[in-house]
Sequence to fold (937 residues):
Amino acid sequence: MIDKTNKTAPKNDENIAMSDEQQTIQNITDQDYKYGFVTDIEMEAFPKGLDENIVRMISAKKNEPEFMTEWRLKAYRYWRKQKEPKWPKLEYSEVDYEDLYYYAAPKKDGPKSLDEVDPELLKTFDKLGVPLEERELLAGVAVDAVIDSVSVATTFKDKLGELGIIFCPISEAIQDHPELVKKYLGTVVPYTDNFYATLNSAVFSDGSFVYIPPGVRCPMELSSYFRINASKTGQFERTLIVADKGSYVSYLEGCTAPMRDENQLHAAVVELIALDDAEIKYSTVQNWYAGNKEGVGGIFNFVTKRGLCGGSNSKISWTQVETGSAITWKYPSCILKGDNSVGEFYSVALTNNYQQADTGTKMIHQGKNTRSLIISKGISAGKSNNAYRGLVKVNSKAENARNYSQCDSLLIGDQCGAHTYPYLEIENPSAQVEHEATTSKVSEDQIFYLNQRGISTEDAVGMIVSGYAREVFQQLPMEFAVEAQALMSVSLEGSVG
Amino acid sequence: MIQSTSIFSEWINQQIDSDSSFAFSETVRSPSLSKLAKGVFPTRKDEEWKYTPLNDLLTLRPVNYDLGEMDEESIQYLKQAMPESHTIVFVNGEYSDAFSDSPSAIEDQGLSITPLPELEGAALELAEETILNSTLTDDNIFQHIALGLTQNGLFIEVDKNIECQTPIHVLYVSTAHGMTGFTSPVNVIRVAGNSHLKVVEQYASIGEAAVITIPASYVHVEDGANLDYYKISLENAGTNHVCNTIVKVARTGSFKSHQYLLGSNLTRSNLEISFSGPSAEAVLRGVYLGDENQHLDVRTYLDHAHPHCSSDQHFRGILNGHSRGVFNGLVLVREHAQKTDAQQANKNLLLSRDARVDTKPQLEIFADDVKCAHGATVGELDSDALFYLQSRGIDKKEATLMLTRAFAAEVTQEIDIDSLQAYVQEKISASLDEIVIPSV
Fold:
């Protein structure tokens, strides 16, 4: 008799533990999108669909010089011949590219100062908790705020101007600095690169342009806030950052999007170019609408991000915290062309409900003594799928290349998936390449340990996940680290405690 | 490409129409023949063949050859790997009565070894059922060439609760001179509940034979059974070897595979394992050693569909000259396969400037309470270790050889048939002696 009760007792405990866990998962699943709202601003939109005329109209609308129009048209013609890639581990309803608006902008054009900015717009920022005024006050952060497609406010421009730093919407750069744009645009991500990058090249609306002159260390973190706002507007941002010899810049990109039922397409392109001894640090916190609990809606995020370490001793570092979007397809990459150049990739990707992420990096070693580091932390919960897909390629002339990759996955609940697809292509014997990956779950022991210290299960999971992703958070600039931590706890809220 | 595949396809069609006596019934053959009729060869756009071009292979026009000449001396030489075993010899794809140990000499009760042409009745049905119950995720045309065109091969069956003491040594020898021969043996192995069996498959060539070898093996390991399955591929440089191995392991069964791919111009080994019950185990080991223009491609696919199963993979590559090594492994842990323990390791050593490695160790995981890890490394010999040995008066070549042999030995030492272990290590050493040049 005693034996029997002893045997059944732990079983009950287990059941309770199980239901706790399920409760936790349930809670995560039940969460609504916190930043869900639609800003009611009059939009000026072109007709739906895409043809050469639309491309010309976009170009004309922006008063672009001839070379840009031609470039866009070349991209458009090339895109027509391309097929959407099917290789990622992603499942989604097909995007009807003829049913999208390719240009949308707030109706009021070019406000000179914050006072001229549409009050509705300012309210949007208020709701996001990033009012421009406060941002301005926040030492060291200049905000190039983008609502939909046209930049409406740029701050700290004068201060940066004194140092010769150019930080402006790319549409402005095309007109004010055509020589720089012509020299660098499309050199890292050519218009023939891939389906989404090609589309972006044809129809990109706006984005940021940064140029850091030789020897200048940018004194503040440059930051741009993106919002997807107009209904059914494909968002095609284009960012180009050039760090000239011996310069340094840290760029922050962060986004939240209003709640919406229709899938929204986002196909951005980011190009980074670091010349001799230059360093670029690019950080992203991405929290677009991920769809509701049933997986309806949410942003389709097909992004091409690539950096070229063109000069010797140059360095490019990508840090990303991906918690949003229904679909994430994103591989921030480094081409390590200069000798002794360094590429880094730090990533936390969290998927929940029906979110799908296929993300990772490519490190292409071309120069001698090039080094790369990949730290990827995937967290899957709910019914989501989270894949790391990465390439480390060492060309035959890249002597003494060194790579270390670590790609860990954490599973929360038994309905989700975590996948790792590393590709290592090594053509030089002096290379030293290591890849490691592990998969684990938040263990009951860990939670129990924290529970017995008086920490609720929810807080415990939050702590464990934060600890798990800490290596990446440490790479973020302070302002972003705070936001990223907050996002993580929002995403895990209810899951843990 | 279309031009080149047509040569091989044309030849396949001739084979289909020939009046040879094929090993299997229409049930097995017809699905394969309809695939063959389409004649679609994988290209580098197929993810599973991304790093392995088939152009060279597909421009070959194989011929059928008769039982080649074979002497006792050559056989004794090849038998040295396994002096104490039941030896079954195939010469140029034909079962050789003369050189094989007679099946009746087999002392183990409950073990039957039958060449495919002699299969009939219930045994043939069982062999075909084993094949029909196996599916490949990489459903490539080579499997269908084997199933549709094979005239020979083996069916090995072990009854329940049999401890087979003597390993089975299956030798596939090619002797054809100066022409492109072709063999596609099919091996079907069934190990019934709680039985133990060791099988060694060895592929070898005598002389200058230029051969296309396209074997396929179908293996069922039933409840609590144990199979050690060794494959030694040591054909000459004129050979192309493309094999498919499909394994099912039932509840608490254990499957151990060792692959030593040491020869051939092109080697592609596809090994797919699925567990059909809980607490089963798979251990995969392998070394691929390449020189000159050799191309060695290892693909593994482990399907964990049941809880408490474990898999452990460890493959090592040594590449010299212009050779290329490919490792493409996938571990799939399905929903409900809780408590899975899956390990996957691939280590590569590049000995020359022009050698190349592409490795792709992949994990796909749909269960949360699992222990899965993988790792891959590529590099050259540790210069500190070389220096250490040199500082002890060992010249650079010898030091390189020692370290390279040791690199391979970490896998080969797990071979638990002593004579085979010695043989494989010796073969690896011999190849290394040849390829490691003093200036390295």
Observations:
- The radius of gyration of chain B is 21 Å.
- Chain B has a mean pLDDT of 89.
